[in-house]
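Lecture 7, part 2: worked example. A protein chain together with manganese (II) ion.
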Amino acid sequence: MLIKVLGAAAGGGYPQWNCNGRMSKRARFKEPGCLPRTQSSLTVSANGKDWVLLNASPDLRQQINETPELWPEADGPMRQSPIKAVVLTNGDVDHIIGLVNLREGQPFSLYASDRVLATINSNSVFNILNPEKVERIELAIDEPTALSGAGVDLGLTIEAFDVPGKVALYLEDASKGDNFGTEKGDTIGLKVTETATGKSFFYIPGCAAVDGPLAERIRGSELIFLDGTLYTDDEMLVQGLMPKTGARMGHISMSGPDGSVAALEPLDIKRKVFVHINNSNPTLDDNSPERKAVEKAGWEVGFDGMEVRL
Ligand code: MLT
Ligand code: MN
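Predicted complex, written out as C-alpha cells:
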C-alpha cells in the first residue's frame, strides 16, 4: 500500500493568502526551513494504479498536477483518471471544496458519513458531479467498508469511527449550546486497511481530544496521520491572528498535558505523522525548538509529497 500526503496544511494553507503572521510571512518570503504546504489531503493506493483521495482540498487541482500517480495514463483514453474514490472525514471547507475540481463527467465513488453527505446533498453546487457518474455512498460508522469506484475493486477496506470534534465552521449553530449542534458523524477518523495483506494505518486529520476509546483503538498501530493544527491551544491569540483557541475550533494541540504528543506517547505507535497543520504552528519551521521537541518525541511533521509505503 502506498500513501502520499497531497497537502499537509490546515484550512487556509501555508502561507495563508491574507495572513501576515510571522509563520506565513516566513514561508511567503521563502525562508529556509519554512516549506509551504497546501491544504489537507492524502491519497492511497493498494495497487499503485487506482487511487483513493482522503479528503478533497481546495488545492486539489495543484495537488494532482504535482502528483504524476494521479495523472491520466499518457497513452490512455481521452477522458480518464486514476482517482476512483474520495472519502471525506468531515465537512470542513478544506476537505470538501476540491470535489468541484473533479467535474467533467468522470466516474468515481464518494464516501462520507450521513452528516457530511447531508451537507453535500443540500448544496446544489455539488451536483456538478453528475449523480449518474458519481455515486454518493454513506459510510457506516464502526463497520468495515470495502472501497470500489468506477467499477474497480480498490483493494482497500475503510473503517470509519467517530472522534471528538466539532461540526464544520459554516454549520455552527450558536443556539445549540457549547457544541454548536455537533452530532455523531460530523468528525470521523479512518482506519485504512489493505485488504490483501491486512496492513493498516489511521488517518485522523480533525480531532478535539484523544479520549480512552480512541487511545485503545490506535494503540500498537503501525502508522498514524493525526490532527496537528496547533502547537499550543492559544497560539493564534498570542500571535494576534484571531481570537480563537484550538479547543474552540475542535482541535487538540500538540503540546501540553492533554496534547497529542503526551497522549500518544504510551500507545506504542510505530510511526506518527502530523497533518492538517495550521499556518500559526511553529513546528512548520524545520529549525524551531517546537519542531525539535516533537521530533524528539518520535513525531514527523508532514509535508506535501511525503510518501509512505506500508
Ligand atoms: C477547521 O479545521 O477547524 C476548519 O477547517 C476551519 C475553517 O473552516 O476555517
Ligand atoms: Mn480543517
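The radius of gyration is 18 Å. The mean pLDDT is 98. Keep this in mind for problem set question 3.
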